[in-house]
Amino acid sequence: MLIGNKAVAVVGGGMGGLTLARLLQMKNANVKVYERDANRDVRVQGSTLDLHEGTGLEAMKRAGLLDEFYTHHRPLASKMRIVDETLSIKFDDHGDEKTIAENRPEIDRAPLRDILLNSLKADTVVWDSHFVSMEKQGDGWLLHFKNGTSVYADLVIAADGANSKVRGYLSTENPVYSGVTLIEGNIYNAERNTPKLFELTKGGKVMAFGNEQFIGYGTKGDGSIMFVASSKVPENSVKERGIDFKNKEQVFEWFKQEYAGWSDEWHEFFTNDDVHFIPRPQYYFPMDQTWETQESLTMIGDAAHCMPPFAGEGANVAMQDAFELADCLTGNKFTDIKTAISHFEKEMVRRGAEATRDTLENTERMHSKTALQQMLLFFSI
User: Is there a contact between 90 and 82 (Cβ–Cβ < 8 Å)?
Assistant: First the structure.
């Protein structure tokens, strides 16, 4: 095995990083995951994930975790209602036994993360390890973390997301603004805090289209809701407004102005006592990006090919990156690590470009003047 005597550092304990660690440990590789979260009990935010055949589901199969995935997946989360800006229901598949979405089974991020964490050796994840910098040391790298610790690794794999700090040691390619910015909201105890919008989901998800804008949300097993409100705006428009996103009154005023044509019933998201907001301008990396392969550093997931969330590809592509890289590093196809990484990176960029292209097309479709009609047609086929 090419990395049989190597110390491997995976920076980032998201789905891609944890999947990679699991697959490498199955081949007895020496791998550590350095995660910025203080511990595994930190609340996991983000939307429910739908895993796809050939990517996310294939990764769970190769990791020997598919049965456990289905133990924790949420069939009801795949059910969907499509509404317009007035909350008028235009499509509802809750009475349909066979839905498009159920071909992509859904699971909340927290239980999926737990499945992956529980599959690792007890000391694999080094918590409270917020990456700051690294420098070359011999044939490898000396990594430095915010807590003052440092560690050497022969091979570093960046799995630290769209705002990766490790990526800069490999590529100087800048991300491109997609033209869409979303505001993410997380609401806990949603049945109490947003009763009408919570009830509308019937345990599944809601997608709303109107005025070239989108609102989407779904319930999670812990009783919370994550919603996004997205629209086509200039890159720095939200920042230039000077909104304090810790101040829900300011965010509410922004929503009433920007979504003036939307029903007041949506205000429930912004006026409850337990909502937290995050502004997220959406970026992607150029589809023809290149960099010089290194034998001691590579990257996977959003660090390599971030993209908007409007096609559900991000986590799935990251998990495929994990099993493709694991195969290259632990198989017998290549004679040296650099050749193995070079092969992986070329295929990863190609696959990432395809997913990005599909995602951008869907992003445009969901924010078009005919978004509602197009989505109704898609889900009625």
Answer: yes
Residue type (1 letter), 80? M
The 3 state secondary structure assigned to 124-170 is CEECCCCEEEEEEECCEEEEEECCCCEEEECEEEECCCCCCCCHHHC
Has residue 217 been placed in a domain? no
Using an 8 Å Cβ cutoff, are 111 and 221 in contact?
A: yes
Q: Is 109 annotated as a binding residue?
A: yes
d(CA 245, CA 269): 14
Q: Residue 71: what pLDDT? A: 96
Question: Does residue 329 form part of some domain?
Answer: yes
Could you tell me if residue 205 is inside a domain?
Answer: no
Q: Specify the pairing of strand 155-158 against strand 7-11.
A: parallel
Looking at residue 243, its pLDDT comes to 95
Q: Is 302 annotated as a binding residue?
A: yes
Q: Annotated binding residue at 93? A: no
**CATH number of the domain to which 66 belongs:** 3.50.50.60
**Dist. CA 12–CA 152, nearest whole Å:** 16
Running along the chain, 381 residues long, what does each successive block of 10 average in pLDDT? 96 98 98 97 86 97 97 93 97 73 83 97 97 98 98 98 97 96 96 97 96 96 96 94 95 96 97 94 97 98 97 96 98 96 98 97 97 92 70
Domain span at 39? 7-74+109-174+285-365
> Is residue 358 situated within a structural domain?
yes
Dihedrals φ, ψ of 23, to 5°?
Answer: -65, -35
- Answer yes or no: is 365 a known binding residue: no
Q: Name the domain count of the chain.
A: 1
